[in-house]
Write a structure and sequence with these properties.
The complex is a heterodimer of chains A (372) and B (82).
Chain A (H helix, E strand, L loop, with lengths): L3 E4 L5 H14 L25 E9 L2 E15 L3 E13 L10 H12 L3 E5 L6 H8 L3 E4 L2 E5 L2 H11 L3 H8 L8 H19 L2 E6 L4 H10 L5 E3 L3 H7 L7 E8 L2 E10 L11 E9 L4 H14 L4 E5 L3 H9 L3 E3 L4 E4 L1 H6 L8 E2 L13
Parallel strand pairs in A: 4-5, 9-16, 12-13
Antiparallel strand pairs in A: 1-2, 2-3, 3-4, 3-9, 5-15, 6-15, 7-13, 7-14, 8-10, 10-11, 11-12
Helix pairs in contact in A: 9-10
Chain B lengths: L3 H13 L20 H15 L5 H6 L3 H15 L2
Helix pairs in contact in B: 1-2, 1-4
The chains are: A alpha+beta (372), B mainly alpha (82).
């Protein structure tokens, strides 16, 4: 029987577990496994909600040899209004450990495009990974979402860099030509100066931790959505699903200026990753405001992470004003492996749009909630 | 005019980065080092574009060797009367 790709159902669960066992045995990456429950624990399909995950498996004679997920959501552009898009994520093929299944990766991708032509993928570890290469072969457009980092404790960071030797962290610092030879105390002083300048620019800005998003989030969404060429919908209903009250790993901040909410941010500590050694890494995961208020949001988000003991703060932002805000708050740009890829149909819709005016960040990718 | 087999071999040569003289009907992912999942997809897409065909998932899966690709393209051409 040929391989058939179908919706993941309970009857496939044992076969998916067996698939995962083979993957674990064949690779050195324990996270390279598929969901063992057919119903998504994160973003399950709920009546009336436009935001949900669906899973699909490639099975042959009862054995699963591949799988992928689609996260359905709404995006918004001033030209198109609100429209449905799906994020293609967590695709896995047994071909990575058994060449007999080399065709499965392509089958999964073509199946996804057939089911939902309006697709994107985000993250993927860089252009040289197999998935981005396949997407490019399929005529998708690929762009990298710029990456920024802020070193909160330069001395600790330096010590870890020595431990990590030829790590990508060292490559980042090598790119900081402006600081070569100046020294770490100067770096710390420079960053503090930047932060103080921003602080004096911003006047009465205050961030308040909130347990959940409320109607104020709707007002902020409506206020800012037309300022972007493209953004995923971030109204109260969507935010409540993405960041429910029960979810404690991420901190939700509402940012006020002169007593009025002007934006929000979601920040959190990334889970341990060997490439960062023992550094505690905080991430500005998601955020929203008018572009002109980006600096206030970034400033507050970074302060919160610093107060929580992070040694390093990272963020990916596509919009030029959010990127400028990061730079003004003392962040450095570094090589990004966070790739935004759009299917032919989605790319067609975005033809006349400026990528520098898209609002994309970490939360649009496939890392939530597993990376935190 | 080049035969179907010659055209398929030429496409395979381009995609897998191997001279056409080293492409044989039994060439496969086992014998062609660059024939991985990405290049397989590229190969399928290149065949579709070159012959103006659309392969179903089942047909795509049948392509395990260059000979399979030639046979499939010839069958499709006959069926679709191109």
């Amino acid at each position: 029987m040929p391989i058939a790709i179908e919706s993941y159902r309970e009857e496939h669960q044992n076969a998916v577990r067996a698939f995962n066992q083979r993957l674990r045995a064949g690779t050195s990456e324990p996270d390279l496994v598929f969901y063992e429950q057919c119903h998504s624990a994160w973003l399950p399909k709920l009546d009336g909600s436009p935001l949900y995950n669906k899973y699909f498996v490639a099975q042959e004679d009862g054995a699963v040899h591949g799988a992928y997920a689609l996260k359905y959501e709404h995006f918004f552009s001033p030209e198109q209004g609100e429209f449905v898009v799906a994020c293609y994520h967590h695709s896995l093929s047994e071909g990575i450990i058994d060449r007999r299944y080399f065709s499965v990766g392509g089958l999964l991708l073509r199946d996804a495009v057939r089911r939902e032509p309006m697709l994107y993928a985000l993250g993927m570890g860089g252009y040289d990974q197999p998935l981005p290469k396949m997407l490019k072969a399929m005529g998708w457009e690929l762009r990298s979402v710029p990456f920024y980092f802020n070193v909160v404790h330069p001395y600790r960071f330096l010590r870890q860099m020595r431990v990590l030797r030829q790590s990508f962290l060292q490559r980042w610092m090598m790119d900081l030509a402006a600081f070569s030879g100046i020294g770490w105390t100067a770096l710390e002083a420079w960053q503090k100066t930047k932060r103080m300048r921003v602080s004096s620019d911003l006047g009465s800005v205050e961030a308040v931790k909130v347990e959940e998003f409320a109607d104020w989030a709707d007002k902020l969404w409506l206020e800012a959505k037309d300022a972007y060429h493209l953004a995923s919908v971030r109204d109260h209903r969507t935010l409540t699903r993405l960041y429910p009250h029960s979810q404690k790993h991420l901190t939700k901040l509402c940012v006020y200026q002169q007593g009025r909410p002007i934006g929000w941010a979601v920040v959190g500590e990334r889970r341990n990753d060997p490439k960062y050694g023992s550094l505690r890494v905080g991430s500005i995961v998601d955020c929203w405001a008018l572009p002109t208020n980006a600096k206030q949001i970034i400033y507050c988000a970074a302060l919160e992470l610093e107060a929580n003991g992070m040694n390093l703060i990272v963020s990916n932002q596509s919009h030029k004003q959010w990127r400028r805000a990061l730079e003004e708050c003392g962040f450095f740009a570094a090589e990004s492996n966070f790739v935004f890829a759009t299917s032919k149909k989605f790319s067609g819709l975005l033809q006349k749009s400026d990528f520098g005016q898209f609002h994309l960040n970490r939360a649009n990718g496939d890392g939530l909630p597993g990376n935190f | 005019m080049a035969s179907v087999a010659q055209r398929v071999h030429s496409i395979a040569s381009d995609v897998f980065g191997v001279p056409a003289q080293r492409i044989f009907p039994d060439s496969s992912p086992v014998t062609l080092e660059r024939w991985d999942s990405t290049q397989h997809l590229t190969f399928v897409l290149a065949l579709e574009e070159s012959f103006q065909l659309q392969f179903s998932p089942e047909e795509t899966e049948r392509i395990r060797t260059i000979g399979d690709a030639v046979k499939l393209v010839e069958e499709k051409i006959q069926v679709e009367g191109k």
